[in-house]
Design goal:
By secondary structure, the protein is mainly β. It contains no helices and 17 strands.
């Protein structure tokens, strides 16, 4: 109900993670992340400083959150006859790693330019795509391990997002051609 068809954010499906007896979810925009009892729905923990969480990943007791800043978003999307609503990348989106049990912040990468739907975990590393590169961080420290150029188009339909997959020793990135806009 917040967006029209094909105008909503693609990352909505990545705002809920269920593991064991917990469900990690945001209960609204821009509500903070909470841990719910999976059986009763009772709130067990509210994670401070997690307002605007847009994506949630969980691995080995660590929550990896892609967080935006709704106040820092660029101007409202414009309409385009062929492609529908068009948006520009969200430069304010960053990453945060939290201890799931205590809520303690392990590391933070603000304003990293993380594209929606591109955060991935594999072999102790966190991967994501920005408008200009694919980036690899150490999952424990958040220290950058490497980055490789991967240009993306300057605008895209709101329903469009790159796909980034990490498996074994391979990282795959699929996106629109940088030279072709909506």
């Amino acid at each position: 109900h917040l967006w029209s068809l094909f105008a909503g954010p693609p990352e909505v499906a990545r705002r809920l993670v269920a593991a064991g007896d917990r469900v990690y979810v945001t209960l609204g925009y821009p509500a903070p992340l909470v841990a719910l009892d999976a059986a009763t729905g009772e709130t067990k923990m509210t994670y401070q400083g997690t307002e605007n969480t847009e994506e949630i990943l969980l691995h080995d007791g660590v929550l990896y959150l892609a967080m935006g800043d709704r106040k820092a978003e660029l101007p409202k999307p414009r309409k385009n006859r062929r492609w529908g609503v068009v948006r520009t990348p969200e430069p304010a989106r960053g990453l945060v790693a939290l201890d799931a049990a205590t809520g303690a912040e392990l590391w933070r990468k603000p304003n990293a330019g993380v594209y929606a739907m591109t955060t991935a975990l594999n072999n102790g590393r966190v991967f994501y795509q920005t408008p200009s590169a694919v980036v690899c961080l150490d999952a424990k420290t958040g220290a950058e391990q490497w980055q490789t150029p991967r240009p993306s188009p300057p605008t895209r339909p709101t329903w469009s997002a790159p796909t980034l997959v990490a498996y074994g020793d391979v990282v795959l990135s699929v996106d629109r051609n940088a030279d072709v806009g909506p």
